Amino acid sequence: MTSPPHFTGRDLLCLRGGRLVFQDLDFTLAPGGCLTLVGPNGSGKSTLLRLMAALLKPLRGTIAWDGVALAQDPEAHRARLHYVGHLDAVKASFTCREILSFWAGVRGVADRAAVDRALAAFAIDTIADVPGRFLSAGQRRRLSLARLVAAPAPLWLLDEPTVGLDRASVALLEGAIAHHRAGGGRVVLSTHIDLATPDGAVLDLAAFAPRGDEDDGDVAEDAA
């Protein structure tokens, strides 16, 4: 029997803006798994998520899906994930339903029922026909997260997804994550609050902080 694909990172080293962010970082994420990234500001949580999304490349090391490095086919990898960053992709003149229908269409999903499920999953079904310009910050955030449900993808990469959410909305997000994982989906997220992710793993990026000038010299030599 073929084993399910794993999402892995090995010996990762990242340099941003001339600064070594983290080094010697490894991770493994199996189907149904959740990896929570923690660490102080500047420790590289957002950077690691962008590496995982193939939006950036590590200076050293390899990120792979089922043993195949992302660098070999980054577009194929991006097609299997949702990346939700700090900005909400909400167009002011489009309604909530239109925005979700657009994102679903991008993924090849032309199912009104899928959009309805996404609206209900984040309790924005009552404002489905309200244009983006009239939404509160919390409503905009829930709409941005609802595309996770409207157009399924096996890997969710979520950068501070709870920003702007009240406790009830955080509970909706926890429910969506649990449902996704129950179907074999994977989640990597960064957060500064306690988010319920039963049996999930935690990766503290502070443990992979640069060790000193000696390592910086090695990095400079690699980058040359």
UniProtKB/TrEMBL annotation:
Question: Which key words tag this protein in UniProt?
Answer: ATP-binding, Cytochrome c-type biogenesis, Membrane, Nucleotide-binding, Translocase, Transport
Q: Which SMART domains match?
A: AAA
Keyword Membrane carried by entry: yes
Record InterPro entries: AAA+_ATPase, ABC_transporter-like_ATP-bd, ABC_transporter-like_CS, ABC_transptr_haem_export_CcmA, P-loop_NTPase
PROSITE patterns membership: ABC_TRANSPORTER_1 (PS00211), ABC_TRANSPORTER_2 (PS50893)
Which biological process annotations from GO are given for this protein? cytochrome complex assembly
Q: Domain ABC transporter: where?
A: 7-224
Q: Which GO terms describe its molecular function?
A: ATP binding; ATP hydrolysis activity; transmembrane transporter activity
Which species does the entry assign this protein to? Nitrospirillum iridis
The record's listing under NCBIfam families reads: ccmA
Q: What Pfam families does the database record attribute to this sequence?
A: ABC_tran (PF00005)
Q: What is the name of the protein in this document?
A: Heme exporter protein A
